[in-house]
Design goal:
It is built from 13 helices and no strands. The chain is 79% helix and 0% strand. Helix 5 runs antiparallel to helix 6 and helix 5 packs across helix 8. The radius of gyration is 24 Å and the shape is globular. It has two domains: 61 residues, no CATH class; 223 residues, Orthogonal Bundle (MetI-like fold), CATH 1.10.3720.10.
């Protein structure tokens, strides 16, 4: 087990390093000049060169990379090209907002996926089971932004139950819940439908296992056998799929934050791209990459805990 943890940590660190190289050099070779973009076409070449030196973009790329990656992992992400303010506080503030939104989206997705997928599997040959499967299939086909617009139209514009946009900190209590409700619901609906399909497939596979047939042969009711012996085995693939959906939730949050005017990583990324603020773009993209890799690492470490059979395999 200890060797497996060390190996997973080594792969995680190596992947983070490779990802930092890819993020930095891909964004650095994009056409355009940040200094020229900020000063405009009327600026003289001397003014542009002076700003290049001030921003540090006139130095060799390896030097820029070492300075950026060292600062990123020590909390100094540099100075924004657009606002001339430190990048780290802006990214960390936006990161807190995005994590709250993604956590809300995961909660909504799990609340939808687990009962819907379980019922669709248990009642697979019944009309209601077919209906549950159809509902989950329909949910997959609805884009996040469309779900957000529909929720705004119904619950914000028509019913006036929730605000149509904006954000409130968790300390605001009920106001925070009112602001996060619709974005989290829009983010979690589609991913909940996807997870429901995987839940159905995982539960159906477990229900066909020999140990489930043995439990039923001993007189245990199907529902009781599933709850006592089946769900834990079904959780292993579901946890893996949930970690993959975490990346989709972060990507979907970019659109949802724009629709609901939420000041998270997504909206900051869109604004930074528009301003050609490459240092901000690099830091935000790297934060997302590290988050996704960290979640995958935690899932890799959690799977052998849930299923002891995997310990010998690792």
């Amino acid at each position: 087990m200890a060797l497996m943890i060390v190996r997973r940590l080594g792969v995680f660190l190596l992947t983070v390093w490779v990802a930092s190289l890819v993020v930095f050099f891909l964004l650095s070779v994009l056409p355009g000049d940040p200094a020229r973009a900020q000063l405009g076409l009327d600026a003289t070449e001397d003014q542009v060169q002076a700003l290049r030196e001030q921003l540090g973009v006139d130095r060799p790329l390896p030097v820029q990379y070492m300075e950026w990656v060292t600062g990123f992992f020590t909390g100094d992400m540099g100075i924004s090209y657009a606002s001339r303010a430190p990048v780290a506080p802006q990214v960390l503030d936006a990161l807190q907002v995005s994590l709250l939104l993604v956590a809300g989206g995961i909660l909504v997705a799990l609340v939808i996926a687990l009962p819907l997928g379980l019922l669709a599997a248990v009642r697979q040959n019944k009309p209601d089971g077919t209906l549950f499967s159809a509902v989950s299939q329909l949910g997959i086909s609805v884009p996040n932004f469309l779900a957000g617009l529909l929720l705004i139209g119904v619950f914000a514009v028509t019913l006036s139950w929730f605000p149509s946009g904006g954000w409130a900190p968790p300390a605001a209590g009920a106001d925070f819940l009112r602001h996060i409700a619709l974005p989290a619901l829009a983010l979690g609906l589609v991913n909940g439908a996807i997870l429901a399909r995987y839940t159905r497939a995982a539960v159906l596979e477990v229900m066909r296992e020999d140990f489930m047939r043995t439990a039923r042969a001993k007189g245990m009711k199907p529902g009781t056998a599933l709850l006592r012996h089946g769900l834990r085995n079904a959780m292993v693939p579901l946890i893996t799929v949930t970690s993959i959906e975490f990346a989709n939730l972060i990507i979907g949050a970019v659109v949802i934050e724009t629709v609901f005017v939420v000041p998270g990583l997504g909206s900051n990324l869109v604004r930074a791209v528009g301003n050609r603020d490459l240092i901000m773009v690099q830091s935000i993209v790297m934060c997302v990459v590290v988050l996704v890799l960290l979640v995958n690492l935690l899932v890799d470490l959690l799977r052998p805990v849930i299923d002891p059979r995997l310990r010998s395999a690792t």
